[in-house]
Amino acid sequence: MNKIKLFLVVLIVSATTFSCKKDDDGAVEPPRDYAVQYATDIAALETYLQTHYVTVDADFNTTFTDTPATTGQPTIWDMPNLTFKSVALHDITYKVYYLKFREGTGDSPTKFDQVLASYKGTLLNGTQFDYSPFPQGFLSLQSVIRGWTEIFPLFKAGNLIDESENNPNPPAFENFGAGVMFLPSGLGYYNSVVSNIPSYSPLVFSFKFYSVKYVDDDKDGVLTKDEVNPSPAPGEDPIEDYDSDGDGTPNYLDIDDDNDGVLTVVEIKINGELPASYDAILDCNGTTTGLKKHLDPSCH
């Protein structure tokens, strides 16, 4: 079982594991303060970026190497495609550095969707703790570590080259997104010990993003990515905080989005069939230009 799939198991068992971990005085060892640990992590990550360089082959496989002061080799810190995303969590703002070697040409996931990706995970000391060159299935961005949830939506999937059922080789993709994310421990496993990943470890993930599978969390016929507020208020998540009928349940989990007593999956059907896309859902006048039926409580 790889480390990403172990994440949910870790969440379940970590409370038991660490509530039983005691120091020499018999006291329970509490998790470290997030802000204090982040200060340590970001210093270590930025030192790593300033003292290492990366080589990337034609298929976007990566090799990280220490940069001796005498070589003049440009560091990751100096690469023009190094950028970062700010993530507000644990009452602090994380800076998440990432390299974008190629954005990809397909579709992007939301943080609720599933991704097919190969990846390699290493610690800052170079120890490889996970490697999945040929992914066996899709991973839910709702179930993996938070760093993945934040970074994958910044990339796009590729396209499958050979869809033949008789092809004995692993599926091949082209034009896929490829990059590296550098995660502070608060967006990884934090105080949990997972296999050979020590607690409070910053993580480096190289990845290739092959395909996305969009989900419908509430099974109402509308994909979660389409249950989005067109005009979110500042600070609101356009999906997670979108509750169009004000009933306390966000649309992506609400089976009756306008609270009119008629299920969304019933309202959106056209001649008994679900529409081919969100844009094809009709309004009460039978067109696609007005308020869609499942969002209009006056229309059944």
From TrEMBL:
PROSITE patterns: EF_HAND_1, PROKAR_LIPOPROTEIN. Residues 237-246 have a biased composition (Acidic residues). It comes from the Bacteria. Residues 223-250 are annotated as: Disordered. Coiled coil: none annotated. GO terms for molecular function: peptidyl-prolyl cis-trans isomerase activity. This is Uncharacterized protein. It comes from Flavobacterium kingsejongi.
